[in-house]
Amino acid sequence: MRAVCFDGFSARPVLRDVPEPTVSPAGVVVRVETTGLCRSDVHGWLGHDDGISLPHVPGHELVGIIEAVGDEVRRFAVGDRVTTPFVCACGTCPECLSGNGQVCRNQTQPGFTHWGSFADLVALHHADTNLIPVPATLDAGAAALLGCRFATSYRGLVHQARLAAGETLVVVGCGGVGLSAVMIGVALGARVLAVDIDGDALARAARCGADTTVDSSGRSRKEVLAALRDAAPEGVDVSVDALGREETAAVGILSLRPRGRHVQIGLFPADPVLPMGAVIGRELSILGSHGMPAQDYPGLMALVAEGRLRPQDLIERRITLANVPDALVAMAGDRSAGGVTVIDVRG
Fold first, then answer.
1. Which contacts (CB < 8 Å, 24+ apart) does range 310-313 have?
2. pLDDT for the residue 150
3. Which of 136, 156, 199, 316 has the greatest count of CB atoms below 10 A from its CB?
4. Residues 51-95: pLDDT tens digits?
5. Does domain 153-288 match CATH 3.30.565.10?
């Protein structure tokens, strides 16, 4: 099969023929329709994930058609159209049994623990626990994006922060994850404020329904917080840091009203120093979001089915496997055009 593969961290990926994956007893092999290009794929390629073995095929957001099933699979069959969370749970550990497969101690992640979806075929494990049926009518790009950025944002806002209609949400960082959070916040009936250093990213956030945008480029933390106070004088109810920097997390935390909730989605390159005095003095909650287990997808899928959430509206580029090496290199060097890119593998 064709796959985008790299033999060394930071070495330029290449599209080449590689052996097809084999199906595990409880797993499936999926023929990929479309897969997302995510900054996490870049981090893996650059060597920031110590679970990756070389040579490697990245890719973790996907939709496709099941081509082979293991003997132990009971809920799915060849020909089913499916997606999966990027964190695939084992289904039997204490975390999974408590309904928290997103932090499964035995988790597998396509594109990280094993070869991923930048390929014609991808193996997925523990299929009955992890697969999510996808309607034939749903856009393939929209379905692929549900596996990582939308699921992580949805869990963070709905299951962790319990964002309610009428509350105020600030999203700091308007890349793919941040824009997903903006769209979900709007769909839930919240008033959304968006912060970014890039005018194009803020324009995208406005198109996604953000009520107010704050350009933080060249502005001090104090100035950014003052702009947010102008928009929400009592403070915001929920904040999201979708980037993963000390400064962006601090802005989110310090924008909160007393008893507010901060959701950390962006991954930090190193352990940060955060304004814990404000956390204590205002009794703030700091919450993480690390994907979402498959059994919690019905609420997210319902928003999509009702048309209240349209992940496909974030897609600005559709490329093929042949374009992926250039796209990865550009994203690593912050030379990508911004917005969300998906890879139509069958293209």
1. 310/142, 310/183, 311/139, 311/141, 311/142, 311/143, 311/145, 311/146, 311/150, 311/180, 311/183, 312/139, 312/141, 312/142, 313/183, 313/207, 313/208
2. 96
3. 156
4. 899 999 999 999 999 999 999 999 999 999 999 999 999 999 999
5. no
pLDDT tens sequence across 127-144: 999 999 999 999 999 999
CA 256 to chain CA mean position, Å: 24
Question: Token digits for 6?
Answer: 């790299």
Cross-strand bridge partners of residue 301 = none
Q: How far is CA 283 from the centre of its chain?
A: 28
**CA nearest neighbour of 171 among 147, 152, 153:** 153
Specify the fold of 2-148+292-344: Quinone Oxidoreductase; Chain A, domain 1 (3.90.180)
Three-state SS at 215:
strand
The predicted structure's pLDDT at residue 268 = 87
**Cα–Cα distance between 92 and 274 in angstroms, integer?**
35
DSSP-derived secondary structure for 284-298:
-EEEE-----GGGHH
Alpha helices, H only, the chain: 39-45, 94-97, 127-130, 140-145, 149-154, 176-187, 199-207, 221-231, 246-254, 276-281, 297-305, 324-332
Structure tokens at 334: 């912050």
Work out the angle at residue 255's Cα, subtended by the Cα atoms of residues 235 and 169, and round it to the nearest 5 degrees. Answer: 70
- Domain segments of the chain: what residues? 2-148+292-344, 153-288
| Rounded Cα–Cα distance for residues 179 and 194 (Å) | 9
- With 0.85 as the threshold, say if the pTM is over it: yes
